[in-house]
Design a protein that fits this description.
single chain; alpha+beta; two-stranded parallel ribbon; elongated
Amino acid sequence: MKTSSFATPAPPTRRPAQSGMAVIGALLVVMVATVLVAGLIQRQAADVRAMENAFARSQGRLLLANGLDWARMVLYSDGRRFATTRPDQLWAIPVADTRISQAGEDRVAVLSGRIEDEQGKFNLRNLAQHGVVQAPAYEALQRLLALQDQAPELASQIARRIAMTQMEIAPDGSIARAPLAPMLTTVNDLLALDTISADALDRLRPHITVLPDATAVNANTASAEVLAAVVPGLALPLARAIVAQRDRGAWFNDRADFANRLANPDMNPTEAQIGVVSNWFLVKGAVTLDRSVITTQALVNRNGRTTPEIIWTMELH
């Protein structure tokens, strides 16, 4: 008798499913690698841009430093040539957008700047001497505030702030009190006072300054508002008429010339109030290079003997 035998069926293969999982795994690895590489490329591009911006800013600062040196030489030259300081001289001509490039390069820097006569403004430093508020300067600031529709009471707070920056001197010459606060550097420091707003300061900014020393106002560059504030009894309409005549080329030769045009013997400004020569200037400059824009200011003192000295510089943001 024959016995039948049956072959045991082979187990089903799982190769197709395993191959599919391998493909998915490979795709996941590729996707993760792509994300990582893309992130690295983005970070590398950001680093490159940061380096390019830093390089451009460094070059821009060098251009501004060269521009400041040029401004100092102009001030020095004008100071030696002219006995008075007037806005028809070379220092007062602004530098419009000037394109600067090197031969063979496509990169172009745009430089602009101007020089402002700080002695054409009311100097807050005049408000106090040896920690004591000075009445003539205090009253001048009150008049200036009134002309700008600001509360005259603000003058007392500003004057006290200036007095606090100075040491008091006793009658015997000894120090009675050390300074109680640092000196203001710019008029923006007035924003630390609770009673003055940014809008109010913007209205005053064209007419006031802070200088290391007490100074007279230059009648050849001052606004009508500043002249009316500094000279007691000078009404604003008359100040405007004098300024209009001046700006048509009738510059003041000296303080006596200015006093004569007032046509009023009761208005006789002192040497401490009015002058016709300036030694303090604000140099403003800006450079655009690639994606960088750099703006700076520098206070310059022209002492008449050597190249004008840079007192401070600051980069604006």
